[in-house]
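To illustrate the input format used throughout this study, we show a single complete record. The first block contains the structure-token representation of the backbone; no residue identities are included at this stage. The design step must infer an amino acid for every position from geometry alone.
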């Protein structure tokens, strides 16, 4: 609950920031000169960028939270030794990638997010948790993004269990009525 309160507070702060930027941009437009219009355009671009980044981060948080609720650590997970857990998680991702087809055409490595199903997103999320335990935030975010993408691909492929809690027909209960 505390995290939700923090997110709402940050969204309110961002909304106040956007309102302030809009106010400043309107002041430049009211000035009526070419310089004023140019500065207003720059501020509107900054405003759009702010909204876009905030939206992406909120969606990332929702997706990561969904994965965290669904994730159950495997029996061989080692919470005591972060390095050993990282190696086991990395191996799990490689095995999931090999099971789903290994290499794709054109020499691109298959990350497993396209064909392997349940095991792939869990392997990527396990790797994200291992990166986080090693304090590698960049690696953890990248692996979490891969896990979210794999989960969405799996949900699209199976047509059930969408990330937003709706069924394949778009209804909350998935009943199709």
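Output of the design step:
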């Amino acid at each position: 609950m505390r995290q939700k309160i923090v997110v709402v507070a940050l969204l309110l702060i961002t909304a106040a920031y956007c309102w302030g930027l809009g106010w400043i941009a309107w002041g430049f437009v009211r000035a009526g000169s070419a310089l004023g219009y140019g500065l207003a355009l720059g501020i509107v671009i900054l405003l759009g960028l702010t909204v876009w980044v905030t939206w992406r981060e909120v969606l990332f948080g929702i997706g990561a939270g969904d994965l965290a609720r669904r994730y159950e650590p495997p029996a061989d997970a080692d919470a005591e030794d972060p390095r050993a857990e990282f190696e086991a998680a990395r191996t799990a991702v490689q095995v999931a990638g090999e099971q789903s087809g290994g290499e794709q055409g054109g020499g691109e490595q298959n990350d497993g997010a396209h064909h392997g199903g349940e095991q792939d997103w869990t392997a990527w999320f396990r790797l994200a948790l291992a990166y986080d335990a090693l304090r590698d935030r960049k690696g953890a975010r990248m692996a979490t993004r891969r896990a979210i993408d794999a989960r969405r691909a799996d949900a699209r492929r199976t047509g059930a269990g969408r990330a937003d809690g709706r069924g394949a027909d778009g209804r909350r209960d998935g009943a199709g009525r």
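Structural context for interpreting the output: DSSP finds five helices and no strands in the chain. The radius of gyration is 21 Å.
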